[in-house]
């Protein structure tokens, strides 16, 4: 229901918000909590957390939760770190309760089922319930996402906070379940508030200005979709930009060209996902991008039955860094002396066109053979699309000749093909065995360079298999 300012009537959202505000104010009055922190005042956030866990009344609970979240927002880094550390230690599992639950289970009094449930409940860290109660505050979900963003910024220097992050991910995975997400199209008529965030959050191909944004949203052969959550109404969680074309593109420049001639949507045969951007740093590791792609494919296929091909034009953000690491490895299985000379000439200002064969062959090795210890590809974008059931379709030399593209991947871009009839089989092959499903053309790019010799894979590839023709 919308705000009806002309009639003067109070709408449902206004009434609900007013009720929450009233409960919060009464809770503060009962507890003697000031709505705002006095200058120079440092609140003990851990004590507020203890108070929140000890309360059963909703009014007082909402008031404490709101006060704690507000205090965390206002706090400096030392105080924030102190509170997050208390989540790891003070609000961890109750060891005494666990010991008693284990003893009761071992005695098997009252039936195994109930004792096992009691043990499970005792093992849950207190911080999980604290985070749940913080979420009851108005705007609590948004505040907790920002809190985790702070946590992630501290995690590298404070690895002892990892259990806290694990619990955030556990809870967020439930709260941001696909069932709660709403897919909405974004176009030139969408509210300026959301459009500004599309400009701000675009992480793959920066949007230069409003005219650039118009070029991506308004023409009939362009689409954009975003996932939203009911608790973050005007905050897109992730969005994808789509170009409708007559063929699979090999370069990003023509797609973003403001002077290009648009085509009618009904004339397109190919939907190209050329940019996928996560917007909330505090939701890193909470996966809903796979749902986004599949939902958009279904919606486009329903809207435009003339579309036969669904494909990405994706960056390879880790490729250049991997090549540099391989160059430092004398026993690299990916780089021979000829390739070293070619890349050295390129560093000395040589023509990159002369390095096409070397870069393409290295890219084929990078995607097909270079692995993490888990057995998955080293490239994060590849892991995302292959895990969703796509096929590695084509390697595009100089697909992105921008400064950013040259720095991160020697200009390389990749097409991942979403063939609807093969998505599930490809996903299963990747999930179960780490199999990179690739086109013959990509496989040929690897064999053309390496078929004359067997190579010992580099340490980064973590593969013991021979490469053979």
TrEMBL record:
Q: Give start-end of the signal peptide.
A: none
Q: What is this protein called?
A: MCD, Malonyl-CoA decarboxylase MCD
Q: What are the Malonyl-CoA decarboxylase N-terminal domain coordinates in residue numbering?
A: 91-176
> Which Pfam families does the entry link to?
MCD, MCD_N
Read off the InterPro entries from this record. Answer: Malonyl_CoA_deC (IPR038917), Malonyl_CoA_deC_C (IPR007956), Malonyl_CoA_deC_C_sf (IPR042303), MCD_N (IPR035372), MCD_N_sf (IPR038351)
Query: Domain Malonyl-CoA decarboxylase C-terminal spans what residues?
Result: 179-418
Instruction: Give the top-rank taxon of the lineage listed in the UniProt record for this protein.
Output: Bacteria
Which residue spans adopt a coiled-coil conformation according to this UniProt entry?
none
